[in-house]
């Protein structure tokens, strides 16, 4: 190696040690992945960087405003984001106060510009990969019922030995739970993700019964653990005592997006799940439905998709009900406009804002949920 090259490397090293400015970037406390919004995925980044140290910021604050970035840290996440973004309070140490005072307190806040993708990595149908599973001891309940919906991971023949963190985006039917609130969530004590050292941090935000929630869980000591069979935690729901005009209602809890990672931030593509809890006035008088579940194998075709207003449903199911679910979990019944001779059903959608929605179909013993995209008007 030439003397000139050695001198150049020495200069670069001294430059790094002196602290390289973050190219004029600002840090919004809690937005660790710098995508424009504080959410569950920020907890995953914080968990990877936890315990790291670097240059403190000149302004040490977790107030939700643009904080001067200051000097870059010597460490960066694999996607290039500097560890300085994990030091939410700017004191030069990534620790629990960054989670408590910034990620948790600033949850859901946005910078005001474009929100970049969080990198959720759902497995496609037929793709090998573990699965997040939702299950309940009962699927048929009366008003006032209290029940748990358990969350677990099954490997589906693809063992995961390097689990480090997990983030979920969840949606659920609104208007059916007590106080129009959302489900609570409790982690199981001593579960496998604790790894015997209890080095983990968790976040669950229901967004005030909006029909959406986020759940995050991360290890905090840079040591991964293997995924083992067993429950991780439970969603607890309390059904409203009085539901006006109740004949039958379906409460649907759905995992929309998942990001399961190892300690190097590598995503492990994972299958999601949904569950249906049917609410009836008197369970003793219901004999036709035992344990309704979301059917993934039903032969149902929705077209066109994307759709404007006229949607057709091609299915051999004996349809008992059709409904639309908005991205906020709000449910609206949809009347079948007419059925053609070949069994295709026509639905005239209400005027909707462009974006993703879900169509629910209920037959005699199954519920099918399919995603549609409402396209902008021509």
Characterise the protein shown here:
This protein is mainly beta and 378 residues long. The chain has 3 domains: 3-104, no CATH class; 131-285, Sandwich (Immunoglobulin-like), CATH 2.60.40; 300-374, Immunoglobulins (Immunoglobulin-like, Sandwich), CATH 2.60.40.10. The protein has 3 helices and 20 strands. The chain has a 6-stranded mixed beta sheet with strand order 4-12-11-6-9-8, with helices on one face. A 4-stranded antiparallel beta sheet has the order 3-5-10-7, with no helix packed on it. Strands 13-14-18-17 form a 4-stranded antiparallel beta sheet, with no helix packed on it. The longest helix is centred in the first third of the chain and has 16 residues, at 3-18. It is globular. Mean pLDDT is 86; it is low at 3-19.
* Spans where pLDDT lies below 50 across 5 or more residues: 3-19
Radius of gyration: 24 Å
Mean pLDDT: 86
Please, how many domains?
3
Order of helices and strands: HEHEHEEEEEEEEEEEEEEEEEE
Main sheet strand line-up: 4-12-11-6-9-8
CATH topology of the largest domain: Immunoglobulin-like
CATH architecture designation of the largest domain: Sandwich
CATH classification class of the largest domain: Mainly Beta
């Amino acid at each position: 190696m030439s003397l000139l090259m050695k001198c150049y490397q020495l200069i670069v090293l001294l430059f790094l040690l002196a602290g390289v400015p973050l190219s004029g970037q600002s840090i919004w406390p809690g937005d660790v992945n710098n995508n424009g919004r504080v959410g569950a995925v920020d907890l995953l980044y914080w968990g990877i960087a936890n315990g790291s140290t670097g240059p403190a910021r000149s302004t040490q604050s977790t107030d939700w405003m643009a904080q001067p970035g200051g000097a870059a840290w010597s460490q960066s996440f694999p996607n290039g984001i500097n560890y300085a973004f994990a030091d939410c309070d700017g004191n030069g140490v990534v620790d629990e106060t960054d989670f408590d005072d910034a990620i948790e307190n600033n949850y859901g806040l946005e910078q005001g510009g474009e929100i970049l993708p969080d990198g959720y990595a759902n497995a496609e149908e037929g793709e090998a990969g573990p699965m997040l599973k939702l299950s309940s001891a009962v699927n048929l309940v009366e008003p006032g019922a209290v029940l748990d919906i358990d969350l677990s991971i099954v490997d589906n023949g693809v063992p995961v030995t390097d689990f480090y963190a997990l983030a979920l985006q969840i949606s659920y039917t609104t208007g059916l739970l007590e106080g129009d609130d959302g489900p609570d969530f409790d982690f199981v004590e001593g579960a496998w993700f604790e790894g015997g050292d209890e080095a983990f941090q968790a976040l669950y935000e229901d967004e005030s019964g909006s029909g959406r929630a986020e759940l995050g869980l991360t290890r905090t000591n840079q040591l991964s653990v293997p995924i083992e069979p067993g429950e991780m935690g439970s969603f607890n729901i309390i059904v409203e005592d009085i539901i006006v005009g109740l004949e039958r209602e379906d409460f649907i809890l759905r995992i929309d997006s998942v990001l399961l990672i190892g300690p190097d931030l590598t995503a492990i593509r994972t299958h999601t799940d949904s569950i249906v809890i049917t609410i009836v006035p008197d369970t003793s008088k219901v004999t036709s439905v035992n344990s309704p579940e979301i059917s993934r194998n039903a032969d149902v075709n929705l077209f066109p998709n994307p759709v404007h207003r006229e949607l057709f449903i091609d299915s051999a199911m004996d349809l008992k009900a059709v409904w639309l679910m908005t991205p906020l979990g709000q449910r609206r019944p949809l009347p079948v406009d007419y059925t053609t001779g070949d069994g295709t059903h026509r639905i005239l959608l209400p005027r909707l804002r462009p974006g993703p929605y879900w169509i629910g179909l209920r037959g005699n013993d199954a519920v099918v949920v399919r995603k549609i995209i409402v396209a902008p008007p021509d």
